[in-house]
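Example with several molecule types.
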Amino acid sequence: MRLATWNVNSLGVRLPQVLEWLSSDPLASDPSTPSHTGVDVLAIQETKTTDDKFPLNEFIDAGFHVAFHGQKTYNGVALVSKHPLENIVKNIPGFEDEMARVISATVNGVRIIGAYFPNGQGPGSDKFEYKMRWLKALHDWIRSELIVTPKMVLMGDFNITFDARDVWDPVALEGTIHCTEEERIHLRGLIDLGFTDAFREFDQTEKNYSWWDYREFAFKRNRGLRIDHILVSDQLRPSLTQCVIDKRPRKNERPSDHTPVIANLS
DNA sequence: ATGCCTCAGCTCCTGAGA
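Resulting structure tokens for the full complex:
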């Protein structure tokens, strides 16, 4: 089962790119790819669209099942799947939140959680405080969910780097948003529940990122961050065979500032 | 340089993103 996550920064703008990407072989550029099929489940973040305007028919016509949880202007998440999506849950149960950031469903017996973690703006801000509360709520919820469905994938735009390898200039950006110790403690807290960062299970080239600022030719200069992640639970880890970042969509015209991350489960 | 792009919306400026 091939899984992917992509912050599209407006599905209204990026829908054609998403459909094109889904219909292509997302790993064709990787010589080690074992097969040539598209993704089974794609988690989308920042749809920036209300549910009544979600392009449901476009995905259905392309042969996909879809679950979505949107809001006006900001946030919004969706799961696009070749297989039926069961037991759909929106946001973190018990955590009061007007923002649409999480959507979960079971596919082929695997619990899949797609999430758009808060940005957090900067340490000391109200938004940073919200990010910390949200991360705590996510951790407590995932801990209990893992008992129910130990085969679990948590993927999305985490808005947190693991360490210096995920940061184009770790010295200059130390302690800034996405790179603070407080955020990384929460990220490691999720790992400690029994997850693996799929990307680091495999040999990767250096300076391998999933997001680049639109400004100052950041992509061309590879000034990026790795903030989009796929975490697989301990029960799924033995079946993990590959994890790559597909940089090709970042070269599109009118690209998202994020690019997809893909993991393969045998 | 609380900027540089990009996107949505009570749209020709502002807030937010990361």
